[in-house]
Amino acid sequence: MTTLKEVVTFLNGKAPLAWQESYDNAGLLTGDPEKEVSSVLLTVDITEEVVAEAVSLGAELIVAHHPIIFKGLKKLTGSNYVERTVLAAVRHDIALYAGHTNFDAVEGGINTYLAEKLSLKNIRILSPKKGLLRKLVTFVPQEHAAAVREALWSAGAGTIGNYDQTSFSVAGEGTFRGNEETRPFAGTPGKLHHEKEIRLEVILPSVAEEEAVRALLEAHPYEEPAWDIFPLENAYPKVGAGAVGELETPAEERAFLQQLKATFDARCVRHTPLRGKPVRRVAVCGGTGSFLLKEAIRQDADMFVTADFKYHEFFDAEGKIVVADIGHYESEQVAKELFYDLLSKKFPNFALHFSKSVTNPINYF
Ligand SMILES: [Zn+2]
Description:
Layout: H1 4-14, E1 27-30, E2 39-43, H2 48-57, E3 61-64, H3 81-91, E4 95-98, H4 101-105, H5 110-117, E5 120-130, E6 133-141, H6 145-154, E7 168-176, E8 193-205, H7 209-219, E9 227-231, E10 235-251, H8 253-263, E11 270-271, E12 279-288, H9 293-298, E13 303-307, H10 311-315, E14 322-325, H11 328-332, H12 334-346, E15 351-354
Parallel strand pairs: 2-3, 2-15, 3-4, 12-13, 13-14
Antiparallel strand pairs: 1-4, 5-10, 6-8, 6-9, 7-8, 10-12, 11-14
Helix pairs in contact: 2-3, 6-7
The structure holds zinc ion.
The site of zinc ion has 4 residues, from helix 11.
């Protein structure tokens, strides 16, 4: 038996809620965490139609990209589609979960998945986020340094790019004097003690901070271990906005646009003037992406595949890149496949359904 809580913990573990944008409302929106889940409906948007689909399928959970509750609800009278959708979900005891900007931001999330769909190689985050890394420094008696180091690694510290188990150590001397209440690891209460210590440093994502401190306290032999946590200015390459990569074989611009239409089932692609250059490096951003145009140009991308560009924003390409706007819904449909991949691997006995409702509110005549 799998509870909703287990599913939510798993999904939030893949893309921590701390990584969502400040305006967002990702995560579990409705539902009793202790309830059993065995059938899940996957969708880009949650609408009344999608909830009805879940009811007919007997799905206990809807996993969506866009949170239906975005800015908060002050009443639930059914006066608009948001209220009616939430009411229907609650009435039928269907849990709603949204993996939104947290899943946009993470490596292995929507944008890197989008890049994979285009068969890009060497995929990385286009604009890595700052403020998500910490440096943890602690002071350990020499013979216990290895155990503390390993405990910190196991708690998620010490990974830099494709390297794990990174750390830095330097030998030094610590001093302490415990009062009569203490039972010090070394020395005698009431007497100044000198101890040969290792200053141990590891890097860690802020989301691992709590776990790392818990592991440190467990492995450290002192009654009162000393440790410092420093915020780092370094960008975290595994989290951020958009993605970028290269095509193995450069493509002709028109052929690439044609491929976009087919891959994302796009009725039309709005694009800036073609440059007559082969497409090699491609930047992508599912949904609204104009905020990343400068970065895509800076990184010499030939094409920027995204959505929601406004008339005047197209001018900003200035012939340095081709902006290809494939549509918001079209660019984010991959969210369903991503959730399918993640959930089917973790919960192989789940019944997973792709919603048949086309929730795209934009039609092309
Ligand atoms: Zn979106």
